[in-house]
Design brief:
By secondary structure, the protein is an alpha/beta fold. The chain has a single domain (57-228), classed as 3-Layer(aba) Sandwich (Mannitol-specific EII, Chain A), CATH 3.40.930. It is built from 9 helices and 8 strands.
């Protein structure tokens, strides 16, 4: 199992001053969590942060960056976005099922592009974390491929080996389709905070329906620390 990095270790890994790292984590710009009053970081999510910085955000929807709003969860994540009984036994099957679901909802216009983009991202660095959760997304957020930003979720009761075998099985799959890098990193931090808590994670796993999963997610989002709460304001790139 992957262990948490301390703020000092994470700062060394990212080649940042520790003070800078803590400030960025507090602002929700770097995914981290507080445990016992101390910041802790997952290496996999830090790799995600580095990859996001390295990639080019493709914003071809015609909207100016200032018009992209940091909306609350209920505006970008609905009951219909949830697959409570994901039928998949492998990584390709998970990606196919998630892509087909959001395409069927009209959230994505090109299922083939999405499947290829998600698979390419997973080949680069698997997005699963030891809590049994994965954060699927396209490495470059081509906003022209989806009419509006959204988060979707799939749940496999039996679990799927999605990352390396020693990570165990993954049960929850979030699909993030945000308009720019800033919002992607903010929602990655928020979702990581939600699933870090064993009680919140157990509720998501045990919820009897998509509606119950949705209610659990909204309740958890309502408990986000102040620095992680959606602002409702425009978000830069």
């Amino acid at each position: 199992m992957e262990s948490y990095l301390t703020a000092k270790e994470a700062a060394e890994y990212l080649k940042l001053a520790e003070r800078t790292l803590v400030r960025l984590a507090h602002e929700g710009k770097i995914p981290g969590v507080k445990i016992g009053g101390q910041w802790r970081f997952r290496r996999a999510l830090l790799d995600e942060y580095l990859d996001t910085l390295a990639s080019e955000s493709v914003a071809t929807s015609g909207k100016a960056p200032g018009e992209v709003i940091d909306a609350p969860l209920e505006e970008i994540f609905t009951v219909e976005h949830i697959l409570p009984n994901l039928k998949a036994a492998s990584r390709p099957e998970v990606i196919h099922a998630m892509a087909a679901h959001v395409t069927g909802l009209g959230l994505v216009e090109d299922q083939g592009w999405l499947e290829a983009a998600l698979a390419a991202r997973e080949r680069l660095v698997p997005t699963t974390v030891p809590e049994g959760v994965a954060f699927l997304h396209a490495r470059r957020r081509a906003a022209d491929k989806f009419p509006r930003q959204f988060i979707a979720m799939g749940r496999s009761k039996d679990g799927v080996v999605f990352g390396s075998p020693d990570m165990g099985k993954t049960n929850i799959f979030f699909l993030l389709a945000l308009r720019n890098d800033a919002l992607h990193l903010r929602w990655l931090s928020r979702l990581a905070w939600i699933v870090r808590n064993p009680a919140r994670l157990a509720r998501l796993l045990e919820a009897a329906s998509a509606k119950a999963v949705h209610e659990a997610m909204l309740e958890a989002a309502g408990e986000l620390p102040g620095a992680l709460r959606p602002t409702g304001a425009p978000a830069g790139r």
